[in-house]
Amino acid sequence: MASQTQGIQQLLAAEKRAAEKVSEARKRKARRLKQAKEEAQDEIEKYRKERERQFREFEAKHMGSREDVAAKIDQDTKIRVDDMNKAVVSQKEPVIREVLELVYAIKPQMHQNYRQYRQ
Q1: Radius of gyration of the CA atoms of the chain, in A
Q2: Which of 1, 46, 91, 98 is such that its CA lies 20 to 30 A from the CA of 64?
Q3: Average pLDDT along the chain, 119 residues, taken 10 residues at a time
């Protein structure tokens, strides 16, 4: 009976050690997964920064800086506005003259709907 109790105790102790080893293995696995995730995030961040740097270089090489583009747009806008103002100044007198001619050229006549109603 004593040997049986001793065998049970050994089995329980072995089971306890096995459970501890499994628990420790799970903890190591969780730590490794967490570490792998952090490493992946770092790698992703490095890649993103590198691609952004490459894009900025490409943009500067092919389009110029944003300030240059904005300055060119402002310059083009000024040129267009100046051209429109010149067109207004040059066409102002003839348009006013034509509008006044239409206003002064009054031809009094009865509206056609009024004539039809009266007949």
Answers
A1: 45
A2: 46
A3: 80 93 96 96 96 89 74 93 94 93 86 68
